């Protein structure tokens, strides 16, 4: 399944300062759908090169990180159990506090 | 002031004529603005364009709260402060610049740090609050205070080459704690003094904050409540996303909220976030 | 100035320290900025935030060209002008405010109208041009001049509650005439003095113009060349769209362009657009 | 065919100051595709309530109007002969000159 992943608010620093990643991620078995839970595990093992605790806590994103699927907060579309579709755009963004 | 036409003086009609011509704003919008009071928390990178545009547009009362003094290494982004004010209070400097561009509005200087102990008294005097601070505990504190006093909050942030902006606790939308019930780890809290910021990035975000404050104070248009604006300055991309709604379980604005004015005053926001209330 | 570390003086290293910390900007970006010169055409609603942010960020030479004087009904949006300068030249007022926030840069006042007769001589002295004017013939004239002298042009516009922004003639992208080979009918040219403008709308667009100018002058990031940013302030929507490329048939920048420095100097831009070179 | 039409830069004033229109437009005959040419004619007859010369000149938009289909200049996708797809977003925007 082809997905566009974007990292912002400093999370790009965890994946070699690359903000936009075009990726292909396969579901666990052929008939199953890919969920956000699967994607998080894939991102953690395949993209995050340092300080994984700055991205995840337990099996979800750490506090202060927003997950947006096709410009919509994942909390509005099922959160971690949400099923992804071909060509979805998933944004991981850390909240900023500076000024 | 004597008021003549529809609550506006002849001086106001001349000064704000380009606003009065707007069908979507007009006399009604200007009158609402002139009767409103807006508090800007922070006279730094975000606060600079916010106070300049709120002063120039004719808000009735503009409050500015900050305890910092102007430093030369602020001036690459804090356009409200002239070099002559280096070493003096930011609030004094910002108020002087604002008075010079619009002597007809009321500008109130709060030359002190906004803290849980004084926030209720200060914020209570205003209709709309702009969070232009630079640290995490202040963001929780200001959001909680706005929920307690039922004030709309326009929250902006900038760091490096990125910016974010939303409106909290407005027309049934979420508050800061609805989005972030648990604070991030302290190591995730980058600060402008450590990580840097391109000066014009808080400029863009601050102008958007002023726009949202003006729309809410003048009762026009549709605000960014429930939406987050994300700016990536390096590639000039702007994304506006839909956020979750108000949480029924929110300790601040939820159905069984535990937040009260009494426990707010003594809540330890620095301990809660493991982060200091200043970017020093 | 004595230069020490990598072309920057100790004073610059302190003043711009928050820029130097940025991995994507750093010493190289600040050095490029300090060696660049930028001309801002128009010290009005768009020009105000542009000159303030270009002065504060440390561009080496900032030129401002305008022939208007400050009027009280400009001040609802033109935040660079204090009331004390009403009746005086906008260029003088804007330069004074910019010098007060950064005395270490070179600010050049062009207190005259930019016209086909003087534009080549003035624009030729600068690396980057910002179009912050308020009328259609100036937009064609400035674009043509930037094509002739091969300068990147950051073009912004605001009216009512809407704004637009793009970069012309940069890295092979289109010029103004590539997009608009034929001028619109005069009746379609609304002006701020007729239709009004919410003051903070040119504020947002002007900040984006300053951002684009800073990125181009410091050689960082990706500009809005070939893209158009569209702001709808009433609903806080921002749209960034992909524009057509450079036109091979463009009379200004195309393969058989008929534009030359000689016919530029005498071209009648007001006649061509059926529109005056001022918003009065 | 369902389309979202948006008017900006003052063109909304020609259609009763409404900026966003959700519309259903049928192609001329069942098997034909709907082109931008067809859509312009439909907009002119169905949405534009005053001063049509501020929207069109001849059979295309007047000088100074940009047409954007799914955030892309129509000149990049075939211009007036471009074929529209279900759910396309078409923006008509007049260039601004103020400041
Ligand atoms: Zn809440
Ligand atoms: Zn061209």
From TrEMBL, chains A, D:
PTM per Swiss-Prot/TrEMBL: C-terminal thiocarboxylation occurs in 2 steps, it is first acyl-adenylated (-COAMP) via the hesA/moeB/thiF part of the MOCS3/UBA4 homolog, then thiocarboxylated (-COSH) via the rhodanese domain of the MOCS3/UBA4 homolog.
Q: Which GO terms describe its cellular component?
A: cytosol
Positions of modified residues (1-thioglycine) = 99
* Compartments, record wording: Cytoplasm
- Record keywords, A-Z: Cytoplasm, Isopeptide bond, tRNA processing, Ubl conjugation pathway
**Which Pfam family name is an example for this entry?**
Urm1
Here the cross-link named Glycyl lysine isopeptide (Gly-Lys) (interchain with K-? in acceptor proteins) sits at 99
**GO annotation terms (biological process):** protein urmylation; tRNA thio-modification; tRNA wobble uridine modification
Q: In which pathway does it act?
A: tRNA modification; 5-methoxycarbonylmethyl-2-thiouridine-tRNA biosynthesis
Claim: Transferase is one of the keywords in the record: no
Checking InterPro entries in the record gives:
Beta-grasp_dom_sf, Mopterin_synth/thiamin_S_b, Urm1
What task does this protein carry out? Acts as a sulfur carrier required for 2-thiolation of mcm(5)S(2)U at tRNA wobble positions of cytosolic tRNA(Lys), tRNA(Glu) and tRNA(Gln). Serves as sulfur donor in tRNA 2-thiolation reaction by being thiocarboxylated (-COSH) at its C-terminus by MOCS3. The sulfur is then transferred to tRNA to form 2-thiolation of mcm(5)S(2)U. Also acts as a ubiquitin-like protein (UBL) that is covalently conjugated via an isopeptide bond to lysine residues of target proteins.
Q: Which family does it belong to?
A: Belongs to the URM1 family.
Q: What is this protein called?
A: Ubiquitin-related modifier 1 homolog
Source organism: Platanthera zijinensis
């Amino acid at each position: 399944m082809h997905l566009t992943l974007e990292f912002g608010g400093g999370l790009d620093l965890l994946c070699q300062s690359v903000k936009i990643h075009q990726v292909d991620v396969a579901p666990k078995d052929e008939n199953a759908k890919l969920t956000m839970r699967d994607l998080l595990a894939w991102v953690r093992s395949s993209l995050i090169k340092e300080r994984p605790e700055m991205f995840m806590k337990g099996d979800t994103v750490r506090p202060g990180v927003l997950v947006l699927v096709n410009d919509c907060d994942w909390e509005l579309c099922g959160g971690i159990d949400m099923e992804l579709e071909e060509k979805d755009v998933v944004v991981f963004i850390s909240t900023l506090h500076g000024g | 002031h004597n008021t003549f036409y529809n609550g506006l003086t002849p001086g106001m009609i001349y000064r704000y004529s380009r606003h009065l011509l707007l069908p979507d704003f007009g006399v009604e919008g200007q009158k609402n603005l002139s009767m409103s009071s807006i508090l800007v928390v922070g006279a730094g990178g975000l606060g600079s364009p916010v106070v300049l545009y709120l002063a120039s547009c004719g808000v009735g009362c503009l409050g500015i709260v900050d305890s910092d003094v102007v430093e030369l290494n602020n001036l690459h982004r804090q356009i409200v402060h002239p070099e002559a004010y280096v070493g003096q209070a930011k609030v004094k400097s910002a108020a002087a610049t604002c008075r010079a561009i619009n002597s007809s509005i009321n500008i109130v200087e709060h030359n002190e740090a906004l803290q849980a102990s004084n926030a209720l008294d200060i914020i209570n005097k205003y209709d709309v609050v702009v969070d232009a601070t630079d640290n995490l505990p202040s963001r929780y504190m200001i959001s909680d205070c706005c929920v307690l006093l039922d004030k709309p909050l326009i929250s902006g942030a900038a760091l490096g080459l990125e910016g974010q902006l939303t409106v909290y606790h407005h027309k049934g939308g979420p508050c800061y704690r609805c989005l972030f019930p648990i604070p991030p780890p302290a190591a995730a809290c980058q600060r402008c003094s450590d990580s840097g910021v391109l000066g014009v990035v808080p400029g863009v975000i601050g102008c958007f904050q002023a726009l949202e404050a003006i729309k809410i104070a003048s009762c026009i248009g549709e605000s960014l409540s429930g939406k987050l604006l994300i700016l990536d300055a390096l590639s000039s991309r702007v994304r506006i996303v839909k956020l979750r709604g108000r949480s029924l379980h929110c300790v601040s604005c939820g159905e069984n909220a535990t937040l009260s004015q009494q426990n707010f005053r003594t809540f330890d926001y620095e301990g809660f976030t493991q982060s200091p209330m200043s970017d020093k």
